[in-house]
Automatic annotation (TrEMBL):
E.C. designation(s): 2.7.13.3
UniProt catalytic activity: ATP + protein L-histidine = ADP + protein N-phospho-L-histidine
The name this protein goes by in its record: histidine kinase
Class of the enzyme per the UniProt entry, highest EC level: transferase
Residue ranges occupied by any PAC domain in the UniProt entry: 11-63, 139-191, 267-319
Organism: Mesorhizobium shonense
Length: 592
């Protein structure tokens, strides 16, 4: 050290030095030669600094850099390399070699723009990437890149500027990843989603839409717009409960539907729903819960179908089946009743002939009273057969043109004396009502039977109303399923009504809800037979504690045909007594 300092004037070196206590430290030592004014050598000046910490930090940094280089060089899934400020490649890792195909010797010193396709270079993309990174402190983007063999891959690239302590740009650090497979999967997913959206949007027979967890509409397809009437802009963000009726909302059905879908994963129901214009339709609704990867619910998928036509068809089919079954039952009862009445009427004829012989032969007072009693019984039997024949439609019709206004007024006058003061009978049948061609006796008897049933249904009093109107019916207009021009006559009371389970049986013969000795159960059976034989029908509507309405449909008379058939046929039963309103047989039926 001294020799070098004396010869050269200065010597500097670093190395371990030893303190008095034997400990070592890393020193920086400078030895300088000392001479006088005449250049005579006097000795040496020595300066020693303890730089142990600085050396240790430097060693740590070198070790860190070495490890970082090892780490970078060991990464094979990412291309990690450095660029100088002009974009020239200054280092190259194993991942870059694997990804781009160049070795370090082949690529270091080359411009990084060679990794870009020709069209990107022509647009100046490489230069723009470096400018953005230098200006913003970072650049990140995706695009096509080119390998050494000319093949392309889709890359995700991140570029960071490298600056010194003074902030001067020293170069760029660039990390590139090959995400071709991920992009392909993403494109496939996006295409699948696009096709699914097109499919959903193109469906017009189903309302397909999404709800969030609170029930707010988040998507809306064309089918939903067609069925419910709302456009997407009008309904997205609104609560789906607006599709429910006020009654269903008050009952909490929307919240219950989401609760059931969340609990079970699937919920299906049918019911009325409301369109934008307020109209109702019958809907089939399916709600499925949508969950994320962890199984947590994130919303609901809802499918609604308008099945109003299908439901109406099912109801119409059930009604038709019920009507057919009822008609078959009534026809069977009519055939049975007609057969029985025929034999019963023959017996009455035999008894009547012997009574006539006894009366002609003369008899003592006791025998006279006996024959009168038998005649009275025969009259009751004749009235019974008349009603049974009317039900079975085996009695010959004695049809003639009838004015309902006149006949109803006649019946009102006849039954007035048999109605309690607490019961009020009102008839409102105008003269403009079409004429009908019916058996006038059967018409009057049917009205009497209905009025007396109404009277008996109002023990505390009430109101009986008889009305009529002209109607042009189609098969869908009435419960009777009739078509054409008809006169509809209604007898309405404010009585106790008829229970729903009893209502289907009221037209059957001998069916009555009255006590023993209070009715035969033939009154409404007679009305049914009269309406059927007249070419019409009869229906009954009733609500417990509110009253009953019996509606008779009679076809409008064909005037020309009616005039040609003016001569009435004789009834098959000779012993049918005239209609009475007083005495023991004022109410021939006594039925409901």
């Amino acid at each position: 050290m001294l020799a070098a300092a004396r010869a050269d004037g200065r010597y500097e070196a670093e190395g371990w030095r030893v303190r008095k206590d034997g400990t070592r430290f890393w020193s920086n030592a400078v030895v300088q030669r000392v001479v006088d004014q005449n250049g005579v050598f006097l000795g040496y000046a020595k300066i020693t600094r303890d730089i142990t910490e600085r050396v240790a930090a430097h060693e740590t940094l070198l070790q860190s850099e070495r490890r970082f280089r090892i780490l970078v060089d060991g990464v094979v899934d990412y291309a990690i390399y450095m660029l100088d400020p002009s974009g020239m490649i200054t280092n190259w890792n194993a991942g870059a070699e694997r990804l781009k195909g160049y070795t370090a010797d082949e690529i270091i010193g080359q411009h990084f723009s060679k990794f870009y396709p020709r069209e990107e270079r022509a647009k100046g993309t490489p230069l723009r990437v470096l400018e953005t990174a230098a200006r913003d402190g970072r650049y990140e983007g995706e695009g096509w890149r080119v390998r050494k063999d000319g093949s392309r891959f889709w890359a995700s690239a991140v570029v960071h500027p490298i600056r010194d302590d003074a902030g001067r740009l020293e170069g760029f650090a660039k990390v590139t990843r090959d995400i071709t497979e991920r992009r392909a999967a993403h494109e496939a997913l996006r295409e699948s989603e696009r096709q699914f959206r097109l499919l959903v949007s193109g469906v017009t027979d189903y309302a397909l839409y999404m709800l969030d967890l609170n029930g707010l509409v988040t998507s809306w397809n064309a089918g939903a717009e067609r069925i419910k009437g709302y456009t997407a802009n009008e309904i997205i963000g609104q609560h789906f409960s607006r599709f429910y009726t006020e009654h269903d909302r008050a009952a909490g059905l929307p919240a219950r539907a989401l609760y059931m879908a969340t609990r079970e994963g699937h919920f299906e129901i049918e019911g009325h729903r409301v369109r934008k214009d307020g109209s109702l339709f019958w809907a089939n609704v399916v709600i499925d819960t949508i969950r994320d990867e962890r199984g947590e619910p994130i919303g609901f998928a809802k499918i609604t179908r308008d099945i109003t036509d299908r439901r109406d068809a099912e109801i119409a089919l059930r009604q038709a089946q019920a009507q057919r079954a009822h008609a078959q039952k009534m026809d069977a009862l009519g055939q049975l009743t007609g057969s029985i009445v025929h034999d019963f009427n023959n017996l009455l004829t035999v008894v009547d002939s012997y009574v006539r012989k006894v009366k002609k032969a003369g008899a003592d007072p006791e025998m006279k009273r006996a024959t009168e009693s038998v005649e009275l019984t025969l009259e009751r039997g004749a009235a019974l057969t008349r009603q049974l024949l009317a039900f079975s439609r085996k009695q010959s019709a004695r049809s003639e043109l009838v004015s309902l206004a006149e006949r109803v007024e006649a019946v009102r006058g006849m039954v007035a004396g048999s109605i309690r003061r607490a019961v009020k009978l009102v008839a409102a049948v105008g003269p403009d009502i079409w004429p009908v061609s019916v058996d006038p006796g059967e018409l009057e008897l049917g009205l009497v039977n209905i009025v007396f049933n109404a009277r008996d249904a109002m023990p505390e009093g009430g109101l009986i109303t008889i009305t009529a109107e002209n109607m042009q019916l189609s098969s869908d207009d009435s419960a009777a399923g009739l078509e054409g021009e008809f006169v509809t006559m209604r007898v309405t009371d404010t009585g106790i009504g008829i229970a729903p389970d009893v209502l289907p049986q009221v037209f059957e013969p001998f069916f009555t809800t009255k006590g023993p000795e209070k009715g035969t159960g033939l009154g409404l059976a007679q009305v049914y037979g009269f309406a059927q034989q007249s070419g019409g029908a009869v229906t009954i509507d009733s609500e417990v504690r509110k009253g009953t309405t019996v509606t008779i449909y009679l076809p409008r008379a064909d005037m020309a045909t009616a005039l040609q058939s003016a001569e009435a046929e004789q009834p098959t039963v000779a012993n049918v007594v005239p209609l009475r309103t007083k005495g023991p047989f004022a109410n021939p039926s006594g039925t409901d």
